[in-house]
Description:
The complex is a heterodimer.
Chain A: H1 22-33, H2 37-45, H3 48-60, H4 63-69, H5 79-100, H6 102-110, H7 114-118, H8 124-142, H9 144-158, H10 160-165, H11 167-194, H12 198-223, H13 233-244, H14 257-278
Helix pairs in contact in A: 1-8, 3-9, 5-8, 5-11, 6-11, 6-12, 8-9, 8-11, 9-11, 11-12, 11-13, 11-14, 13-14
Chain B: E1 5-14, E2 17-27, E3 31-35, H1 42-49, E4 57-62, E5 65-66, H2 71-77, E6 78-81, H3 93-103, H4 108-122, H5 137-149, E7 155-159, H6 167-183, E8 187-192, H7 195-201, E9 204-209, E10 212-218, H8 219-226, E11 229-235, H9 239-246, E12 250-256, E13 271-278, H10 284-293, E14 297-303, H11 308-318
Parallel strand pairs in B: 3-8, 3-9, 6-7, 7-8
Antiparallel strand pairs in B: 1-2, 1-4, 4-5, 9-10, 11-13, 11-14, 12-13
Helix pairs in contact in B: 3-4, 3-5, 4-5
Amino acid sequence: MAVHKRSYRSYAGEFSPAWSRLLIVSRYAYQRALSSRFIVAYFAICFFYPLGCALALYMNHNQRLLAIFNLSSFFSVDATFFYHFMNVQGVLAFILTALVGPGLVSPDLANHALPLYFCRPFSRVEYVLGKLFVLVLMLSLVTWIPGETLFLIQSSLAGASWMWSDLWMAASIFLGSAIEILVFSLLALALSAWIKRKTAAGAALLGVFFFGAGFGQAINAVLRTKNGSLIDLGSLIARIEIQLFHQYARRMTAIPADWAWLVLLAIGAFCLLLLEKKVRAYEVVRG
Amino acid sequence: MPPIIELEGLGVTLGGRKILEGLKCSLSGRAIGLLGPNGAGKSTLINTLLGFYPVAAGTARVFGRNIRTEIKQIRALAGYMPESECFIGQMTAVSFVRLMAELSGLPSEAALERAHEALFYVGLGEARYRLLGTYSLGMKQLAKLAQAIVHGPRLLILDEPTNGLDPPARQRMIRLIREMRDSRDLHILLCSHLLRDVEETCEEVLILKDGHQVHYANLEEERRANRRFLELETLGGDGAFAEAVERLDCECAITGSVLSAPAWSHTGRSPRRFKMVLGQDFALQDLYRLAEEHGVQIRRLNYRRDSLEDIFLKAMENSNGRP
Lengths: 287, 323
């Protein structure tokens, strides 16, 4: 119908499947996030290190190059290589979360837009999943997807025997990334939902990590304990990655891995609770 | 007409306070008004019908669907224009309305087409590519209306739609609501504390006070009923005239003198005021004939029509004794 026919009429066409609607929120959120040149530029930078690693893997198996230096290999591609890769990409993923995450929920809350979402056949769970999907996809593109790609490149260059003997690393890359992605995303969404100002939410996310780390170290120093690291998110994630990549010789092993898992689970649950409280059409004020 | 909204002892408790209690009625009008003073529970009722607040007691049905168990289906049938300013500031109007249409289930292309149509319909066609954050209050209200109708709902819920509008913008909003009502494609539930808005647009009205239902009125019927009251100011006329009028299927009472007698003493007739409740078969010509027969001069004749304000004030008065 042409737009000049200005009379009200009902809609009699087809409807999209209900399951696909959470992706609508994601699509619009991507559009909004990627409209910032800074975020696009930073997102591109996140691929530099994986590209460098891919090039290094290629050179590590280039016989002509190795012959020039009279070496059998430049470096060994083992769990430590992927552990470092995960650490570098983890930091980049965290900064990406701090750039994109706060803009996901806080503008809707600041503009009181949530009733407009939820007066439709669209639930709060779908809303949160739709917003979460934005971060999950972006962080996946800078963590486990390039990680697994590097694993496949190394497998293709080193042969099937390397791949089968080190297949557990592929699982560790995925699991370690999944933990990072979920913790970062949930934390970013929860802070975005609690702090209506986008910049303040971004600052709070950085604060949770850096103040947590500083405060944790202070507790460790003053009380001569290692339990202060339990409030240091970076240490907790690193502790789990140490376990996943069998890097037991590294420091920070004093925190038991089980505790690290438990604390991260508790943080995830707490973030979900915060989202449950805040992502509502209208807040009920008690009293 | 089958009921649009049925309230079956509906009660809502928020933050430990009873906000709505024991609401029971069946509303089936094309345009239903929700009236009440501030804090009466109008918006709470709307929000409960949309599933935003949990039901504490009883239930309600919208188009026969239970709000406790079929809220998603109800939301699919409803369009909602909230009271507060709500939009996404960094979006153009057309993107915003399109997003809302897509969330209501319209495929992307249909959503875009309907978004353009809806914005043209409400009068924002020329401004549809502007960011919502740059809109005036009146334009934001219209954008909210556009997102509420973009998916062609069967029930349009408007919460204080004329809030903050200047008189021309208010008139435009009222005109749009009337047009939609008359299109017969949808029902309207209009919540307002402005009696004039409800009077100009609604056929049926539910009046709330302190979370209780204090009055339900079918405005069309009330208007018809109120037309049967007649106030008459005359020169002359006495008990005999009143008795003659009563024989015309009327109730008639002399309510007093209009002016002091000396002013009219030269006519030999004293001014009177009659109040009449007219019967079904009453014809005005009969009244003129009787006046002539009794030598009564009719100085003023006035149909007294109870306005919505009268109904509202009466309802408020009657509810004062309620515990």
